[in-house]
Amino acid sequence: MKLRYNMRVYPSPSQCVELAKAFGCARVVWNDGLRLRRDAYAQGLPRPKAAELSKQVITEAKKTPERAWLGQVSAVVLQQSLRDLETAYSNFFASKDGSRKGQKMGPPRMKKKTSRQAIRFTANARFSITPGGELRLPKIGDIAVRWSRPLPSDPSSVTVIKDPADRYFASFVVEADDKPLPELDPEETDTGIDLGLSSYAVLRGRKIASPKFFRRQERKLKRAQRKLSRCQKGSNNRRKAKLAVAKIHARIADQRRDFIEQETIQVVRESQAAYVEELNVKGMGTRRGKLGKSVHDQSLGMFARTLEAKCARYGRIFVKVSRWFPSTQLCSRCGALTGPKGRDQLHIRTWTCDCGTTHDRDENAEANIRAAGRKLAAEMRREAERQNVCGEHVRPRQPGRGSSKQEPTRSPAAYGGGAGGNHPASVG
């Protein structure tokens, strides 16, 4: 699987100037290519191909006085900017015809000079890591890198990023093998995870308190933003005030990211299976009024995505339970829907069922999510057992289940072996 390793880099002042040139040139090439695509569409002409765009906005443009400075940066950076534009259009068309999953994507837009800038060097750029541990980039030089850990393999590409806090990072894409952890007893170690606001997450046997990183820095952030609003636009003091605000936001994001990494790896080490309720975090943040800021401060979606990726790498079971599952309202003992319902009852943290059982709202939700996750995991295992190596169902389909005719029953010999489904002849 492919992983991304982010390392802090410290370019010299002259290298910062060269990186700024590369950022600007890549942005100009993107905008020029996008302008040609839009003009061709407006005139009803066929869409220009990538080779034609590269010839017009890079090769021919370097010969003109207006774009002669494009030759000061690596050509791979400019070519990669056009490839990113082509990928953006492909994602837009795939999203438009429904072949791309996820939320709808709009067409590419013109890039502006913002506080966050990035360029990517592929293997064609011949970047390298020197014996002294520095990152060597074409037409930029050797940049000092602070290595937090060694790379598992040679990187296929590196992206140099400048964030709003005026920090530089190198993001390496490497190929890494999975690291399955020793298997645990699923019945004893699997856990449901109820994500929320009062407690960040409720797991089997323990709770994760809400860190509230944004709330802790909110007062300091307000003072910095008030100072920024009083500064004159374009002044040096405004630039300093803007940098101070960006550093506070960067500190909050770093703390949140580190917290999620530590908690997810602990869940993976302690649990053989993790069952998480699928949440509409975007809808929760926009429809809950004053709670919207707290919803985004928790970053529940990032927690679920990180946990899913780590479960896939370390050989753990990860199951998402439907967001429409009434985990809070369902009694985990008798199965009756007698729990608190509606937004006006969010303040009710404990309730008593008609069967006489008193439930903690979050612990009861975790137990219900765990039970529902076990059923979904069992169905996934049964579905996997019914499929052969090629992904087709081994058992013949019955009438009324996708086919109008009864398929003939095949003998075990037809699958290349005896009664056992794992016969070597049946694989490959």
List the helices and strands and how they pair.
Blueprint: E1 2-10, H1 13-42, H2 50-59, H3 75-97, E2 117-122, E3 128-129, E4 135-137, E5 141-146, E6 157-162, E7 168-175, H4 186-189, E8 191-195, E9 199-203, E10 206-209, H5 213-230, H6 236-270, E11 273-277, H7 281-287, H8 292-298, H9 300-314, E12 317-321, E13 350-352, E14 358-360, H10 361-385
Helix pairs in contact: 1-2, 1-3, 2-3, 5-6, 6-9, 7-8
Largest sheet: 7 strands, antiparallel
Number of strands: 14
In oligomeric terms, what are we looking at?
single chain
User: How many separate helices?
Assistant: 10
| Uncertain residue ranges | 398-428
Q: Provide mean pLDDT, rounded.
A: 86
- Strands side by side in the biggest sheet: 2-6-7-1-5-4-3
Question: How much of the residues is beta strand, in percent?
Answer: 15-25%
Secondary-structure content class: alpha+beta
Instruction: Kindly report how far apart the N and C termini lie.
Output: 23 Å
Features:
428 residues, disordered C terminus, single chain, globular, 7-stranded antiparallel sheet, 16% strand
Give an overview of the whole structure.
Mean pLDDT is 86; it is low at 398-428. The protein has a seven-stranded antiparallel beta sheet. Strands 10-9-8-11-12 form a five-stranded mixed beta sheet. The protein has a two-stranded antiparallel ribbon with strand order 13-14. The chain is of the alpha+beta class and 428 residues long. Helix 1 crosses helix 3, helix 2 (50-59) packs antiparallel against helix 3 (75-97) and helix 7 packs antiparallel against helix 8. The radius of gyration is 27 Å and the shape is globular. It starts with a strand and ends in a 43-residue tail after the last helix. Strand 4 (135-137) and strand 5 form a beta hairpin. The protein has ten helices and 14 strands. The longest helix is centred in the middle third of the chain and has 35 residues, at 236-270. Helix content is 41%, strand content 16%.
